[in-house]
Amino acid sequence: MRAVLHVCTTCRGTLPDDDPDPCAPRAGARLLAALSGDAPPGVRIRPVECLSACSQGCAVALSGRAKWSYVYGRLTPDDAAQILSGAAAYAAAADGVVPWRERPAIFRKQSLARIPPQE
Amino acid sequence: MRAVLHVCTTCRGTLPDDDPDPCAPRAGARLLAALSGDAPPGVRIRPVECLSACSQGCAVALSGRAKWSYVYGRLTPDDAAQILSGAAAYAAAADGVVPWRERPAIFRKQSLARIPPQE
């Protein structure tokens, strides 16, 4: 596996939640559902409880051996296709750094942080 | 080395910069200078150009083998002592997860994101 796409399932999202049912799945769980079943080759989708980016949810992170790690935020289930396309490009890049113009718009505009590769 | 403290040297910071000299060192470089020379045991301080958290700078990240990685923001050189104390606690925690009450206040309040350990 060349990359892991971590999806925060506890994110409440930044958009108002119009579902009146307090037991309805959280925005993060809905994002995970929208992503699941479509993992590109080389990408494993992994749910995680809290990426500590609560005010910027929904959030996902990409990591992989010898690669920079990235965290993205302010995502919704509607972004699933772009997230998967960005994850595929990340998996294919040896150091995880995808050329700027090849990144999906949400990855260019909604990066929360990146961390250098493990030494 | 049990932990690396990555310090973004290109951060301009979120506070107004009162230095009229456009060639003066950036806030991130000043933060690095405030941290350097005092690395706790097990912590290596490493400058990095851009942690992609520009709107939340100054930013630092902590990472280490088999540990969660963390990114913190809105830091200033005045926070150096707290950052170093938090980095020492992080280095000593096998998975990088320091009990909440043992984290410095800036780490409790100014977390931008965290990423699960490498598999």
From TrEMBL, chains A, B:
Q: Which SUPFAM superfamilies match?
A: Thioredoxin-like
Q: Its domain of life?
A: Bacteria
| CDD domains referenced in this protein's UniProt entry, alphabetically | TRX_Fd_family
Entry-linked InterPro entries: DUF1636, Thioredoxin-like_sf
* Protein name stated in the entry: DUF1636 domain-containing protein
